[in-house]
Amino acid sequence: MFPFSFEWVWDMGHMVFHGGLWYALSILGMGVTYCIIKAVYDTAKGQGGHHGHGQH
Amino acid sequence: MDSALIPKGVKRCPIGQFAVFIAVVGAVLLWGVVAMFLCYIKGLNQTNMNNAYGFALWIWADLAVIALGGGAFFTGLLRYIIGKDELKNIINYAVLIGFVCYSSALLILAIDVGQPLRAWFIFWHANVHSMLTEVAFCLTCYFGVLTIEYIPLILENRQLDKVPFCHHLSHNMHGIMAVFAATGAFLSFFHQGSLGGVTGVLFGRPFGYRTGIGIWPWTFFLYTWSAAACGPCFTIFITRITEAATRKKLVKDNVIDLLAKIAGWMLLTYIVAKIIDTWYWAAVTAPSMGLTLMDFYSNNPGSAYGLWILIAEVGICGVLPAIMLVSGSVRRSPALLFIAVTLAVIGACLNRWVMVLQTQAVPVLSFESWFTYFPSWQEIATTILPVAYGVILIALSYRYLPIFPQEQELNPIEGGK
Amino acid sequence: MDQPNNKRFGMVIDLDKCTGCGACMVACMAENNVPFREDDTDKLLSIAWMRVYRLKNGKSFPQAEECFLPRPCQHCEGHHGHSPCVSVCPATATDYDMQTGIVSQVPTRCFGCRYCMAACPYHVRQFNWWDPVWPDGMERSLNPDVSVRMRGIVEKCSFCYHRYQRALDKAYAEGRRDLKEHEYQTACTQACPAGAITFGDLNNPAHAVHKLAQPDMAHEGQSRNPKAFRLLERLGTNTKIYYLSSKEWVRKAGDTAVQKA
């Protein structure tokens, strides 16, 4: 999973597979982090009333 | 008693009735948990698997629930990326069903491995050339996506929504849901495909082996396609069952009709590809390995089904529901629509069954004969366990979360039953 | 890593000589600490790295004939080391060694997903459904060179790899870098009273296996010996176990022909 595990090889297979994996994980991680940080910020600002449901 | 938790403007059954329902399903769940611990404590000798049947009921269950859980990624793709806006009325439920399916698959896999404490080796010591590695990574990541998609729903619970942070978080997550949905679709494409590749790459097993493009056997694409076709059918199937159980209409007909129509066309194109694949395999691939089609379908002991299993999978549960679903008049009839989606769901399950179980059963060495297998009660109980868990999670979610945006409009309380 | 120095250890089993006595199986069990149970009658649940199959020609007396076929791991090379089981293992618990041609299995790395068992058409890979239980006192007779395995993992024939390591150690201690043919032999080879099993380096023209198997390396090791065949050769598994038989029906039985009998 990481380059420091002994079976790791810098070949095409590893680069494509782990490239895809870490790309997807980064997007998810950044997405969630953004949501949480923005929620903290919004809460602190006391912004935004209650939105209706079904608009999402 | 729990009315403060129930979404505004909708009616739910009395808490006592709900508790009895949960207790009954909970008993089934407990039965599965007992079997699960038996497997953990005593080992896989609790199953009826053997050295010829290393993959059995559990792997089938994994493949089947993941295919059926494909409704989540495909509906998400249609809703957020392609822009089929009506589907917002069923996407919550599709996500919930997907969440149940994928968590079930992970649970079954965790029981299925011989040394569960070493299960993390699949990530840490990953062999990137193995289809199972790809499945494990994408499946776990996609389960993460489904969790991300399910969390805002939980946060919309009436009491949680009052907490400003929860409200904002839910709102923000909805705001960028398209990003998560796109990542989910990307991951789903690969793990659904890799599941097809699991048997497709086995060149020592002529029944499961398929040629393909590059490292991907044809089954890679067929599995993704069939999950996109049959997943939404399962979403409709469960929606209809939920409507029957709650005695309410929860999703408007035009929403169901759109999803069924898309699923129908997906199923029709899939089944054409599947027929071509089967023909090519029977006419070219298998003969090149010294076997004919009938070698795989004759003289199998304990069952007289022979070729009927192929006819049932491709014809009765493939071509038939595909034709039914693309027909507008069939879709307008609730009974026929239900039959069609049920057949499609059975078709996907049957396909996974055949690819896992029959691949193991067919003798390859000429001096061996067919291998037979029947699951032990522990295997059956642990396979029913996630069903019970799914029922409970869906019941709780339905009771306390605004899963169906159209419920209030379709079931005004003033005119309540 | 020098290509010409690479070995391809393999075996030739003369089925005309095999009497089906099972000595190879017993020797293998003892050598490799293969676990067994009090009631080991269900052969689909028991473990035997070497298993002797009984083949029949399906004819009635007086044409009835039978043949015994010992089946160790076939150590498939596939296409450039792409053996059916190695490529599928998700945790890299099995490996194809290009220097010896041996398909290894790392018991402590295996977590028991059994994908390799599904991949192997020879049913060579077997699962530890139970933890091993040795009869009282037997622990003292276990082979210290081979680790015992625990329940929940897959195991298989290793061509007695520990014997290779031991032989190499000895040779190195004596200042040699190469082994003589007799220095590395598997337990089953040495136990066979009929001398039906021959083991050695298929790449080495001086070795008996090479002379018997006559592998054609231009055609993935296909034998030039008209008496020789490999199991399921047509699937492209490219195995390193060659069987010899003077009987055509036996040679045919090695091919995929499930219902043709």
Detailed description of the structure:
The complex is a heterotrimer of chains A (56), B (417) and C (261). Chain A has 56 residues and is an all-alpha fold. Chain A is 61% helix and 0% strand. Chain A has one helix and no strands. Chain A starts with 11 loop residues before the first helix and ends in an 11-residue tail after the last helix. Residues 52-56 of chain A have low confidence and may be disordered. Chain B is 69% helix and 1% strand. The radius of gyration of chain B is 22 Å and the shape is globular. A two-stranded antiparallel ribbon of chain B has the order 1-2. The longest helix of chain B is centred in the middle third of the chain and has 36 residues, at 253-288. Chain B has one domain: Up-down Bundle (Formate dehydrogenase/DMSO reductase fold). With 417 residues, chain B is mainly α. Chain C has one domain: 2-Layer Sandwich (Alpha-Beta Plaits). Chain C has a four-stranded mixed beta sheet with strand order 8-1-12-11. The longest helix of chain C is centred in the middle third of the chain and has 13 residues, at 161-173. The mean pLDDT of chain C is 93. The chains are: A mainly alpha (56), B mainly alpha (417), C alpha+beta (261). Chains in contact: A-B, B-C. Chains B and C meet through helix 6 of B and helix 2 and strand 6 of C.
Average pLDDT score of chain A? 81
- The helix/strand order of chain A is H
User: Helix count of chain B?
Assistant: 15
What Rg of chain B do the Cα atoms give?
A: 22 Å
- Chain oligomer state: heterotrimer
Question: Any descriptors?
Answer:
heterotrimer, B: 417 residues, mainly alpha, Formate dehydrogenase/DMSO reductase fold, 15 helices, globular, C: 261 residues, alpha+beta, Alpha-Beta Plaits, four-stranded mixed sheet, two-stranded antiparallel ribbon, 6 helices
